[in-house]
Amino acid sequence: MRRPLAPRSQPNLILGMVDGMSWEEIRPFVVSLRRTSYDGNVLLFVADLDSSTVDSITSAGIHVVKARRLQMQVRGRLLYPYHPRLQRLDPLCPGVVRSVSRVSNDPARTSAALGALLSVRDISRFFRYHRHLSKHGGAYANVMLTDVRDVSSSVIRSMSATSFSVFWKTHARRSGPNPIIENGCRPRSAAGS
């Protein structure tokens, strides 16, 4: 049987993405977070938010990083990856990512950067998380990946250094000792759909 991991001096991190949401949709997450004794870092990748929403998030002590996306205006129409008008190009994306990544000094980071730009928003967040954690992962004792729309204070309080938890809406499943330890990080997921 594995021994529990010793607590580390690094802070915990809650990592999420907010895309096209209003402050009223984000506020329950912030209020729930404040109801806990959580004292670690919170980082949200943000896209398509008005400036007052971003200001409200940052004034709550949450760090934000603007999530860039590949999109362009063509004849008055906004086009982006997986747009119905560009459907013929969809099968080319994986090959483009592989080809460009092969010639990079850091293929994994390049692949994640391109994946974040070329993916739909519900997938792109995981590429962004990967990039952030591959660069800064060793700085955190525990990491919780969250869907801001579905998290309550009970999920945040449950972070521990010895188990890996996956939360689906209101149900949790613990797998025992943490099976995933990479770059000194113990990843978490608290994502719903």
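That was protein one. Protein two is written in the same sequence-then-structure order:
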Amino acid sequence: MQLNTKKGSFITLLPFLVFVITYLFTGVYLIKKGDPMGFYGFKTPIAAIIGIILAFLIIKGNINEKFEVFVRGCGDTNIIIMCIIYLLAGAFSTVSSFISISTGTSVGTIVALGQIAVGFCEKTSISMPLMLGALVGGAMFGDNLSIISIYIPYANSYIKKKSMGF
């Protein structure tokens, strides 16, 4: 039986330490500012994401190798990959809804972000229908909430009525 004699490094603990320090210092800061529920004011996933970003910066290799090391360290690879795919799709949907709210057009949002979504899916193993569904759903959602989209039909009908003498 051969034992694994690979030595660890302090650098590998940095993402965990950044997570703990970020969470603790933010909680203490919020309590000192007068918030009695200080640690509840700063969400734990935000501190975890900061640690994950640092871990991706520390790990050597291309993005696929970094992702593989991250997933193996988290637990069962199939479950973690599924969770990350749904988180990325949700983030993409959120971005597309903000863009369509700002521009007032769902078609323009789909055209602008569609190429990015397809390229992202080709470079990763994310499902193309899931990503494009998130894009279209976010674009339609944002377009329906846009002030620009709401008032243009009313303005057109108002102008037509004024020009006809109503």
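Residues 89 and 131 are 6 Å apart (CA to CA). Keep this in mind for the problem set.
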